[in-house]
Structures are given as C-alpha cells and as structure tokens.
Amino acid sequence: MKMYEEYKDSGVKWIGEVPSHWKIAPIKRFLSGMQDGTHGTYQTVDSGYPLLSAKNVFDTGLCIEDAERKISKDDYYSIIANGYPQKGDIALCCVGTIGRCCIYNEDVPYAFQRSVTFLRCNEAGYNSFFLYCLKSQVANTQYRMYEKTSAQSGIYMGVLKTLIFPIPTFIEQHHIAAYLDAKTEKIDKMIAKAEKKIEYFGELKQSLITRAVTRGLNPNAPLKDSGVKWIGDIPRDWEIPRLNFVTSKIGSGSTPKGGSEVYVDEGVVFLRSQNVYNDGLRLNDVVHIVPSIHEQMKGTKVQVDDILFNITGASIGRCCRFTKGIGEANVNQHVCIVRPKNILPTFLMYCLQSFVGQTQLRQLLKGGNREGLSGESFKNFYVLLPSPNEQQQIATYLDIKCSKIDHIVATQKKKIAYLQELKQSLITNVVTGKIKVS
C-alpha cells in the first residue's frame, strides 16, 4: 500500500493525519452553487411531469418509475427556474437517508422536493472527487453531528456548506476519483452478484413452499380442481377452507396511549412490523412496554404458535410463527395475530407465505386497499388443509429445506455487508490520504 512521503495533523480528531500538502477546508470553497429542491406543495395530476425526492436518489444513480407522482407543466417550470439540477451536479439526500448521493447525469432537469440538495463544483473542485468525499466516513461523521430530527432526520443547506474535508490538488482529485471509480466498480459487481443470488434463492424458497402446500409431497397423489383458478389442482382429499374457519383469532394490535414515549428498555416485548420476517422474528431493535400497559392491551397478547402477519407498509405480507423462549409479548397495529385452530401453526405459516397467501394479498391491494389489509378481508383468505399427519410432514420438509436456503441467504447478506464496509473504508482511506493512488 502506497503512502505519501510526509503527513501533518489535520487538527480534526475524526480525520486524523493527512498528506502535508493537502488543505483542510469547507466544501463551500469548491462550489459555484448549491440548491435544494422545492419547499412548496403542489397538486398531483394524472399526466404531467414527475416530482422526485430522496427516494429516487441512489449511489448508482437516479431511479425513476412510471408511477411517480406527477405535477403540472407550470409547476414543473416554476421549480426548475433556478437552474437546478443540471448534468454534472452532485445530488445529495439531505432528509431521511442522509448522505446517499450520485452524479446527476440526466440531459434534462427533473423537479425535486427539498429532500435532495444539488451541489455544483467550481473550477477548483472536481465533482467525482467530492462525490466520494460525501460518501466517506468523514462526511458521515458530520452528518450525524449536525442532523436535525423531527418526523425525519435532516440536515440544512447552511450546514452542508460548512462540511470540512481534506482537499488535495485538482490533478490529485482526478486521480483519486478515477482510482475509486475502478475499485468501487469491482466491489459493486460483487455486491450485485450476491444480491442476484439472494433474489434467486428467495424465488426458489417461494416455489418450494408453494409446491409443497398446494400439491403435498406425493407426486403421484390423485388431484381435483380446487375451484380457485389461480390455485389450480390440489390433492383429492384436501380441503380449501377460508382462514376464518381454521383460526380462533384474527386481529391487529394498537399503539399504546402515549405512543413511543411509553417504550422502555426492559419489560414486555412489543413487536412491530420491522421485527417480523419470513425467517422468524428479529429482535435487535425491539422495544418494550411495562407490564401494566401490557395488561391494558390484553386483547392483543401474543401466544406461542400464533402467526404474526404484517398488514401495512412496505413489509406487508411478511409473517412468522411466535415460538417459545421470547416470553410475554404484544403487537402494534401494523401486525396481525392469526391464532391457528384445527391446523398446524407451521403449516398455516407456510400457506400464508406461499403464492396462495401472497396472491390474495396482492389482489386486495390492487383493489384499492393501499393502506393495508383489514381483518375482515384477511378472514376470507383461502388456505389449504390436508390431514394433520400430512401437514406435519410438509411442515417438517419445508423447515429443513427453508433452513438451508435461509443459511445461504444469510451468508450472502454477510458478504454484502462486508463488501459495503470494505468499500466505505477504501473511500475514506483514499480521500483522507491514508492510501496514495499515484
């Protein structure tokens, strides 16, 4: 690893030493302009110009979908009248996912909301170099120092201008950007390959589950028409009841009076949608409520073998079985308790995770219930019902198969996390001069 001949103390604890000929300066000295998106409110139209936000900005570039919110032609031109953005600007998320950024490479300006700020370099600053500065740990440390938290975390434009970085010569900025372009491209390709593996194994798992819960394990079993077009044939001796007939409870929780203010570090586990995954509960960020509140919410106490099903938000449809070892628990309004009766809990869980359960969910949401799934709608879901013995065989088979797939997926996720950390470390070391690139 190459290093520079001589270093000096940057005077900033979280930057450390830098090459002796580099400057420590605020980013504003290398900008000809900075402008965030509109702070106004606009009427949505059916056909018009897209109004984008931080959710459209990724490290790999902009992601614009056909279903983006549209505004009128007049509103669009009023937003872009200030000359932002233009090709070559740095697009930086300043609300929500602070720090996500890319070079704006579009030939035409799009209208943006205030959650995105555009930075334009002057003749002393190279945009690709400063893009990497804004992706580095040097920037992340400052984002965390200065972010303001209300409904969403944010950082003001006035603060962005004062972010400080180690600055090399203009020629070195080009060399560093070219070096990092090449190195990070290789890392990004490895990350993309791991993500494709995760996608493949996710589809494989879905296929295995669906095949098992709709056809069973005997390939020679005689079949009959299920009576449901998108389910097709099922084993002749299976039934296909509604969910309401194989459960004793279907209902969601609620937010305790006082909301998040009543959460405590220790007490009764209070499960939210971010804790419920298809491979089980994730409790790394779980919150707790005191026993007295738990008793007030006695109608939504969770029992062992309950199926927890997310009924709102981006994670809608994720579900898992509540097992022993967690202790007392309750749920909020985004999680539905499905209490099995006359059906094996694990088999029911796989039914809900399968194409059968997820298709019914999508059909309801397409029908206009975009906010989430109601308990009444959920009660009418179809489920498959073989004999208790066959349910157990199928559940055991899927437990083994899915466990293997989940292990592979977890390994790939660890690989992605490692590569992302490697990329972050590389960027930070290069833009602070810890590694010399030429």
- Structural class, by secondary structure, is alpha+beta
Q: Can you summarize the main beta sheet?
A: 4 strands, antiparallel
Spans of at least 5 consecutive residues whose pLDDT stays below 50 are none
Average pLDDT level = 93
Any idea what the CATH superfamily of the domain at 23-167 is called? DNA methylase specificity domains
Helix content percent band = 25-40%
Number of helices: 10
Report the β-strand fraction as a percent range: 15-25%
Q: What Rg is obtained from the alpha carbons, in whole angstroms?
A: 27 Å
CATH architecture of the domain at 23-167: Alpha-Beta Complex
CATH class of the domain at 23-167: Alpha Beta
The backbone outline, from C-alpha atoms, is elongated
> What is the end-to-end distance?
11 Å
As for the CATH topology of the domain at 23-167, it is Adenine-n6-DNA-methyltransferase TaqI, Chain A, domain 2
The total count of strands amounts to 26
Strand order in the largest sheet: 4-12-9-10
Write the layout of secondary structure elements.
Blueprint: E1 7-9, E2 17-19, E3 23-26, E4 31-36, E5 49-52, E6 57-58, E7 61-62, E8 70-71, H1 73-79, E9 90-93, E10 101-103, E11 111-112, E12 116-121, H2 127-135, H3 137-146, E13 148-149, E14 153-154, H4 157-160, E15 164-167, H5 170-215, E16 223-225, E17 233-235, E18 247-252, E19 268-271, E20 276-277, E21 280-281, E22 287-289, H6 291-296, E23 307-310, E24 319-321, E25 329-331, E26 335-340, H7 345-353, H8 355-366, H9 375-379, H10 388-431
Parallel strand pairs: 5-11, 19-25
Antiparallel strand pairs: 1-2, 3-15, 4-12, 5-8, 6-7, 9-10, 9-12, 13-14, 16-17, 18-26, 19-22, 20-21, 23-24, 23-26
Helix pairs in contact: 2-5, 2-10, 5-7, 5-10
